[in-house]
# Entry
Amino acid sequence: MTELLRIEDLTVSFGTSAGRVKALNNVSLSLNEGEVLCIVGESGSGKSTLALSIMGLLPHNTEISDGRIMYRDIDLLRAGPDTMRDLRGREISLVFQDAQSALNPIEAIGPQLEEVILAHSSVSLRGANKMAQDMLSEMGMADPKRVMGQYPFALSGGMCQRVMMAMALVMRPKLLIADEPTSGLDVTLQAEILHRIRELVKEQNASVLLITHDMGVVAAMANTVGVLYAGNVVETADVVPLFQRPQHPYTWSLLQALPRLDDPDKRIEPLPGTPPDMIKLPPECPFLPRCFKAQNQCRTDPKPNLVEIEGRHSVACYNPVVPADEN
# Structure
């Protein structure tokens, strides 16, 4: 398979009055063409920062001290503003988490959609208007012409999410970054959004970086999974091995906190404790205070590196969880 996106040792921090927030720490991930990579982790683990780093949309108080983000043969961290403007929307698109806030509140939906098309193609304004309406129709809008004339405040959260999806997909990008695209939506709309993402992958051989808290979405959508904790990648694997044989104690704990339809009597185990202070990250493993597998090496050595334990399954842990069939 052809690699489309490769992130190498990405280290990102934000300057604040309280100190530097270490949002991402030596993050390395890769995504092949035609695959879905799901990024999971608690709030504040760095998932959205990762998405904004790829798009080059980080705020001015950001420092990227190390790393590369390779999209094909382009290093996005060192690409000029003209190159990034050309790639955004045409080859790489982002669906923001809060669609209603991401849309321009003082501009109608139509011009916002048409702007993407006109910026990346030579079609006329009339052609852009038709493409925008067709895309809204694909997103399930019953009256796209009416929606084109409305403002974001007149639309429901679900309709705004459909507009954002239409805006992201109208140019048929090769890479779609979806930051919690189903959060706050009813289950019917969630299913529609995820179905459209699957269609994009199938029809265009596109790749998707899907950020989510929902492990059910991960199970349904992912080819590969990356688990983030306190700005660190602690485990990466294909989706089936990750669910069947989680190796990092954090991944194992996430799965233990989920109800199971195939095991209704299973006791749900919440993960105790809280994530560390991202300004004062310890030199050792950041999961140490919450870990049930911690040993002396975890307390004395620096945090472990991500090491491959079997094909496409890597873990950053000195004492990984032993699969049940090996007990």
